[in-house]
What we know:
This protein is mostly helical and 206 residues long. It has seven helices and no strands.
Amino acid sequence: xxxxxxxxxxxxxxxxxxxxxxSKEEESHPLFKRAVKAQNAKEIKxxxxxxxxxxxxxxxxxxTHLMLASIYDETLDKPxxxxxxxxxxxxxxxxxxxxENVRKWLEAAKKKYYYRARKxxxxxEDVAALQDTLYTTEQELKKYKLELTKTQSLQKKLxxxxxxxxxxxxxxxxxxxxxxxxxxxxxxxxxxLKAKLAEQEKKAQA
Length: 206
């Protein structure tokens, strides 16, 4: 069941992309730049690798999802993966000027995948097995997304804690500077008193 193995692998990979932050500086990110460079050099597998790695950093990058969808749809002829990335683009950029065209491309990719799958899997047992695999994969995706949400929540808490520690450090550094200045002043006053006392002792002896 080679098709089902591919389907499972792709959907699990899609789940790992999850959801994340958006950034206007995505085109200047090293991974994104490397991906575009590799794509222009016709190094498609390398371009896909860099785009996927960038999605780990910025899962909600609609531009990256559209780039990957185009590669899977037009270059690699993998409509299932293309469908996933077209859908993610529409999820994160539903009001984009390109959204209407993307919806057309999405429907075309779905039809391509459907007719290819129907041609290859017309055995009822295979269809049932595929449905079971899809269900199992969906459950795995829900699990991964839940874990990702927990991880992101923990990261936010750690960030808040780190900021608190940083602020405390700045406050302590400031207080230490004040104490050091007071200490230096005390040392100076002590030295001055010692000098006066020594002078008075000399006068007394004289």
